[in-house]
Amino acid sequence: MKRLLPKYPGTGLRNQNGFALLLSLLIVVLLVIIIFEADYQIRADLRAAGNFRDDLKAEYLARSGISAGEALLKDDAKNSAAYDGVDEFWAAAIPEYPLGDGLLSGFIVDEERKININKLVNQSTGKVIQKRQDQLMRLFELLEINPDLTDAIVDWIDPDDVPMPYGAESPSYQAGNPGYAARNGAMQTLEELYMVRGITNAIYTQISPYLTVYGEGLININTADSLVLQSFDLDLDESVARRIIEKRPFDEATTWRSEFRNLLSTDVINRIGDWQRKDSQFFTLRATGQVNDTFKTVSAVVRRTGQQTTLYYFRMQ
Q1: Could you give the CA distance from residue 114 to residue 97 in angstroms, rounded to a whole number?
Q2: Is 117-275 a CATH 3.30.70.1320 domain?
């Protein structure tokens, strides 16, 4: 006999209502998850857009600093062409100048205040110029760096494959991993020194402020550091270098060399030759733009000829 179960009114309706409530809750949960995910993505996109905006603004600030530096150099050539010295407006660093939505800082340094390592070798004959290597060796000694390292620098630049006593040529470099050849020619950038045997990061940091790969090899006595002045000759010591610095700028077109030499002995004058000048042609310009937490730095090297500048090097960091 079939058993009849009692029926309660509204049971099916309650089941349907419970399922609908559960479905609604699931939909609400999904919507909340979607909203939170969308909010997170929107915030991430906004941050990325903000970073891109700040990055672009900082870059343009840095580029504007380079343009302003070139304008300063052109103005200097127009209004103060007698000499280039550390007392001039272009030589003053700019410390975090407010500009637009950010800060601009930068400086200009002439390259003729430094020793041009490409002039260690006569590029026509391929022979080392001993007086120039002697000068570089004296600089290394003043910096308490082994002067024998200059042999490796000469070997990197000279055209032959015959190593100097403490130097290294292509076979030595090619034996490494990875191997590479010596340039056997003029360096394109100073950072190339990192490839020379024996030049560590610590040594590069010490010597780089005093070395360059630009210019004719003449040193501007109005901007040269005391150590560079002392590197001219063993008898040009710190006290003589100090007198030179106190006396400068040497600016008279016809008498500056004689005024400079009045501070030196005849023997020193005869030994150092005519490796000096009173002005500069090559300049390094560095400008940093900062917008919020974003920084962009531009480094450039320009050659000034008259009131015109030519770009030789450009790097964005």
Answers
A1: 28
A2: no
pLDDT tens-digit profile of 9-45? 555 555 666 666 677 777 766 766 776 666 567 666 5
Fold (topology level) of 47-112+281-316 = Pantoate--beta-alanine Ligase; Chain: A,domain 2 (3.30.1300)
* Strand-pair partners of 297: 288
pTM: 0.84
Lowest mean pLDDT among 39-53, 96-110, 183-197, 217-231: 39-53
Residue closest to 136 by CA, chosen among 112, 158, 120: 120
Give the number of residues written for the chain: 317
Whether the Cβ atoms of residue 252 and residue 81 lie closer than 8 Å to each other:
no
pLDDT in tens, 117-135: 999 999 889 999 999 999 9
**Residue 2 DSSP class:** P
Instruction: Give me the residue label for tokens 């290597």.
Output: 133
Contact partners, residue 201, CB within 8 Å, separation at least 6? 194
Would you say residue 4 has pLDDT above 90? no
Close Cβ partners of 269 (under 8 Å, ≥ 6 residues apart)? 261
Half-sphere exposure of 269 (CA within 13 A, CB side): 10
* Residue ranges per structural domain of the chain: 47-112+281-316, 117-275
